[in-house]
Amino acid sequence: MSEMKYNYDREGDVLYISFGRSEHVVGVELGDHLLLRLDTGQGTARSPRAVGLTILFPAQLLALGHTPTFTLERLERLPADLRTAVLEVLSKSPVSELLSMRLTLAPEELRIPELVAA
Amino acid sequence: MSIRGRLLATIGAWIAFPSKGVYNYDALLAEGESRIVNRSTRMRGRPRGKIWTQRDRFGNDIYLTYERWDHIINPDNHPEVEPYGDHLRETIRLGRRKQDPIIPNAYKYYRKFDDLSEGMNHLVVVVVFRWVTDPNGVMHEAKFIVTAYFQFF
Question: For chain B, first and last CA: distance in Å?
Fold first, then answer.
């Protein structure tokens, strides 16, 4: 695993986190301020791996009291193979060391009993 | 609603920075800034200022500087964008624009392309509008690109 590198562009307020390099990079916006760059491994027959994370306006968000939080529902729009690769990359190191993922179960819908004639 | 749809609707996965991560996050920024100092030393002698200025569909003159471009195409940042400089201009000129939901002076410009690498189909260009004071003390609005990347929609 390559070394994790941080590159903060102060003027633009953009934080680039690099986990290595690849010539086969795919970009997926996880949220309005977070871009995941990954190598899906399709071109090299390897398992997917994270290439980088880019955080937009981290200093301004922190100053405003915003912690970047988002749902993964937007991944539904991705092709199935890409979505699977993204989820695999998110759930393992090094991305899992920077982001925490938690699963929340919503209560089930209440079933309304059908009316039956008396 | 299908079973799959219901599953996706009722099971939500959230990602958040760990609470203690706020402090780590500050450390990341601090480390990043120290690297900028080193980087600025390395960049001595490189051209500075604007590479080009492009007017968008709303009449805003948006520019790209050598400094921001160097950050974007750094081998550890978004080097895949480097061969697509003309696409950046086209995205500013003709792309759809979306205002950031939290940072009101930030915008994303989107443009669909069929010739991006790895099957990506959109170029996203992030632009900031900011009031700055020039050396003569005159305020004017600077509208500049801060980063750009490929995205699959």
Answer: 23
Going by the DSSP 8-state scheme, the letter that residue B33 receives in this structure is H
Residues 48-107 of chain A whose Cβ lies under 8 A from any Cβ of chain B: 52, 54, 56-62, 64, 66-73, 76-79, 82, 90, 98-106
Residues on chain B touching A31 (C-beta within 8 angstroms): 15
**Which pLDDT tens digit goes with each residue over A76-89?**
888 998 999 999 99
Looking at the complex, does the CB of residue B119 fall below 8 Å from at least one CB of chain A?
Answer: yes
Q: What is the interface size between A and B, counted as CB pairs within 8 Å?
A: 171
Domain ranges of chain B: 3-151
Strand order in the sheet with B11-16: A69-71, B11-16, A100-105
Q: What is the CA radius of gyration of chain A?
A: 19
Q: Between chains, do A27 and B120 touch, taking CB under 8 Å as contact?
A: yes
CA–CA dist A81, A87 (Å, integer) = 10
Closest-CA residue to B134 (of B126, B142, B122): B142
pTM of the shown model: 0.78
CB A73 within 8 A of CB B8: yes
The ipTM assigned to this model is 0.83
